[in-house]
Amino acid sequence: MAAAGAGAIRVLCFGALRERLGAETLIAERVATVAELWSVLTRDSPSLRDARERVRAARNLAWCDWQTPVEPGDEIAFMPPVAGGAADGAAAPRLRVRLVGEPIDAGRLAAEIRTDQDGAVASFVGVVRAASAGSPVLGLDYEAYLPMAERELFRIASLVASRHPVTSLTMVHRVGSLAVGEVSVAVAAAAPHRRPAIAACAEAIEILKHDLPVWKREHHPDGAVWVDARELDPGAAGEPEPSPGASPAAAGEASGQSRDPGAGVPSGEAPPSLPQLSHVDGGGELHMVDVSDRSPTLRQATAEAVVRFSSPATVAALRRNSPKGDVLAVARLAGIMAAKRTPDLIPLCHPLPITHVDVTIEIDDAVPGVRILSTARCVASTGVEMEALTAASVAALTVIDMLKSADPWMTISWLGLRRKSGGKSGAVERPA
Predict the structure, then answer these.
(1) Long-range pairs of 89-92 with CB within 8 A, sequence gap ≥ 24
(2) Does residue 412 lie within any of the structural domains?
(3) Helix 385-403 vs helix 327-340: angle between axes, to the nearest 10 degrees?
(4) What is the pLDDT along the chain (432 residues), one digit of tens a residue?
(5) Distance of CA 423 to CAs 32, 175, 302, Å?
(6) CATH code for position 187
(7) Contacts 24+ apart (CB under 8 A), 421-424
(8) Catalytic: 116?
(9) Does some domain include residue 229?
(10) 60 near 146, Cβ under 8 Å?
(11) Among 114, 138, 286, 292, whose Cα sits 20 to 30 Å from the Cα of 245?
């Protein structure tokens, strides 16, 4: 397999590792083993480098150990602990495995595998529960390393079927966003007698919870937390990311911070001053910033948006094209048009003589979803950051509008400025 090209190694990270190291990195530095590659990847993250024993690696879609040799062109995946929760004939057992983005009908699965030769059908059904570790759960996200996960599901099913005299075995796991009460995983086994069917289900779910490269993020009222992150380092547990709808006070309480801005300041010292907002004057009134004394310079800004699909099947639907037409072309045009209308949408933005807007959209199977990059340019006395951000956000919303009939639970999982140049700040990149 040569996923990264002749001169580099393609590195993929999942679950909490993805948020801390990035989803995909190309490593051109020569390394001999997986362990050396991990050291290069985590060079600037000592806490993760030291947590190596709690991370699993895969080379070209197969689990491997840390001393496995690495060659240019390999695809290496680093993964935190994955998320959890006698036959009468000689015919080989029927195996059925799937990763799905739609709801699982566990009763139907069990009914489909039974034949008149089976005296027992056993099943295990995992369901999203309403609380975890004493905290209410609002929903879950399941992220998978899809090519490897499909292969692992079949390997697990084959292994279990070789150990127990079953006639049929089905394993189905959800990916994407799930609500409380929805089925996350279902295993069903049919056999002439009850003991093999029950044993096969029990063993299958235990191996699945240990080996299947799927990760779970729990959404709580005060934030979201990767379940596997608790295994990476002690500081990760109990520190949820603030939920999009959580108030600043709730986010502070979730991380153990006081709601009092002066709390924690040593006695005798004043709390740190808050930055002055450019659109609020000294008397607290809103106003448009006066830029008449600034010299016009060439300004450029690049923003990014990521639309995350709730199901990998949406990627396939997008590649087959939408009934509404070329989704990406329409979204790109919408983003360009939106950039030119930014001052009509955001009250205190300056009308700018935009000289160039570019929007590019790429399908990313690893998300799964699309990544949108928008760049705006002009010669003016103020920057074009909001124009670039507006283009990216409207392009993202257009993707959602075009595909919502196939996937109503898409989210904009990231929207932000990547870089800007011009003016007194010069060229600035978003910190890594």
Answers:
(1) 89/117, 89/167, 91/167
(2) yes
(3) 150
(4) 444 445 799 999 988 888 888 888 999 998 999 999 999 999 888 778 777 777 888 999 888 888 899 999 999 999 887 665 533 444 567 888 889 889 999 888 888 888 888 999 999 999 999 998 888 999 999 998 888 888 889 899 988 988 899 999 999 999 999 999 999 999 999 999 999 999 999 999 999 988 899 989 899 988 888 886 555 554 444 445 554 444 444 333 333 343 343 344 444 444 444 455 666 565 666 667 776 667 778 889 999 999 999 888 888 888 876 555 688 999 999 999 999 999 999 888 888 889 999 999 999 888 899 999 999 999 888 889 999 999 999 999 999 999 988 889 999 988 999 998 887 767 788 876
(5) 46, 45, 15
(6) 3.90.1170.40
(7) 421/298, 421/299, 421/300, 421/301, 422/297, 422/298, 422/299, 422/300, 422/383, 423/294, 423/297, 423/299, 423/382, 423/383
(8) no
(9) no
(10) no
(11) 286
Q: Which residue among 74, 116, 401, 407 is the active-site one?
A: 401
Q: Would you say 221 and 247 are in contact if contact means Cβ atoms under 8 Å apart? A: no
Residue 227 belongs to a domain = no
Residues 422 and 353 in one domain: yes
Query: Residue 272 domain-assigned?
Result: no
CATH number of 394's domain: 3.30.70.640
Last residue of a domain, one of 171, 188, 219: 219
Q: Are residues 68 and 106 in the same domain?
A: no
Looking at the fold, whether 205 and 100 belong to one and the same domain comes out as yes
Range of the domain at 414: 297-429
Q: Are residues 172 and 197 in the same domain?
A: yes
Q: How many domains does the chain have?
A: 3
Q: Are 229 and 238 in contact (CB under 8 A)?
A: no
